[in-house]
Amino acid sequence: MTSHACDVLVVGGGIIGLTAAWRALAAGATVTVLDPAPGDGATRAAAGMLAPVMEAGFGQSGLTRLGTESLALWPRFARSLEQAAGLPPGAIGLDRTGTLALAYDGDDLAELRRMLALHREWGLGSVEISPDDARLREPAVGPRVAGAAWVPGDHQADPRAVHAALSAVVDAAPAARLVRRAATALTWVDGAVVGVSDDAGERHAAGTVVLAAGFSSGELFPGAPTRAVPGTTLRLDVGPELTSGLVVRGTVQGRPVYVVPRRQRADGRREVVVGATSDERDDDRLTRYADVFTLLRDARALLPALDDAVFVEATTRSRPGTPDNAPLLGWAADGLLLATGHHRNGVLLAPLTAAVVDHLLGGAPGAAVPGAALEAAVLLADPHRFARTTQGVAR
Ligand code: GLY
């Protein structure tokens, strides 16, 4: 049974899917979003770190560049999303206050210095500072910290506020429909995607399908090699004395941990997100006792005052990984646009994803995007890159 026809059908209502839906609406399209529980995937667990610098990995200069380009687009993305959603400036919690990196012991400091050398080589602006200088920036830093760095290039935004703003835009748009069902199959005709079936047996015809179904994208389209990378984040509620509001991240005996304080509420308290584990296993949403224990132990090793925080929530969801952990952004077949595989960087890469969708759907750009940034994104995130590699090896 065919229910509705639309110009653009987006499979997945997380931050990436709704960003694509927003940009398709801005391009004048009629849009359907298909998701049984919008925002309850990776978006739900995301901490919202906009951290191309501290997430930079050796050998991943391309991905780091995508991150820094997307970060540069964040202020305009935030402003135009807040405007579209009818929200006041600042409502989605973009904070560009930098990040404090901490090393717990000597080995952690050696690793931090290795990272700082990479940051220097790539011109990312991080500098080593003393633990005392770290305490001047964040008085809650504990006494047993071996070293520190100031990372001016990493920031944060509140993913749940971003998702709520995107939902408000889609809900209010007469040309948009949200269907709370799961996609079960793409509809193909002569090598082109022309729609999607859902788990109620309905078929939705669409001129373009945007696949933004996170780690399960590959189940609908095997040409999207996504895998689940489950992780747990914790949410705490803290009083004004426990943090100055600076993002802190570090390693404690080799284990990474981050602490992301949201803006202070009117009552003086604030949400703090502690994260994150990262596992290579099948998707599940079961929070392991040991993960909660380890995250809290490591967070309090860096910021002992967190002991007075109120425990609010532990959330386990899967990030969408790809073979090289760069996203899949672009046309995969006639009628099929991929916007998935953002791994640890879905929130960071939302503005660049918006720019690529604007470019590919011929929409009005929400931000003036440098052509070189767009070209780099289209090349690095090309959905066909793995097929090319396989063919190259086979030859
Ligand atoms: N962006 C950090 C994480 O995925 O844990």
List keywords for this structure.
D-Amino Acid Oxidase, Chain A, domain 2, alpha/beta, FAD/NAD(P)-binding domain, 2 domains, eight-stranded mixed β-sheet, binds glycine, 395 residues, globular, 32% helix
Structure description:
By secondary structure, the protein is an alpha/beta fold. It has two domains: 6-49 and 160-226 and 323-394, FAD/NAD(P)-binding domain (3-Layer(bba) Sandwich); 99-152 and 228-321, D-Amino Acid Oxidase, Chain A, domain 2. Helices cover 32% and strands 28% of the residues. The chain has helices at residues 15-26, 42-45, 61-84, 106-121, 131-137, 159-172, 217-220, 289-302, 350-361, 371-380, 385-394, and strands spanning 2-11, 31-34, 49-50, 99-103, 127-129, 147-151, 155-156, 176-179, 183-189, 192-198, 203-211, 227-238, 247-252, 255-261, 270-275, 310-321, 328-333, 336-340. The strands form three sheets. Strands 1, 2, 8, 9, 10, 11, 17 and 18 form an eight-stranded mixed β-sheet that branches. Strand 1 (2-11), helix 1 (15-26) and strand 2 (31-34) form a beta-alpha-beta unit. Helix 3 crosses helix 6 (159-172), helix 3 (61-84) crosses helix 10 (371-380) and helix 9 packs across helix 10. It is globular, with a radius of gyration of 21 Å. Glycine is lined by residues 47, 49, 231, 275-276, 319, 344.
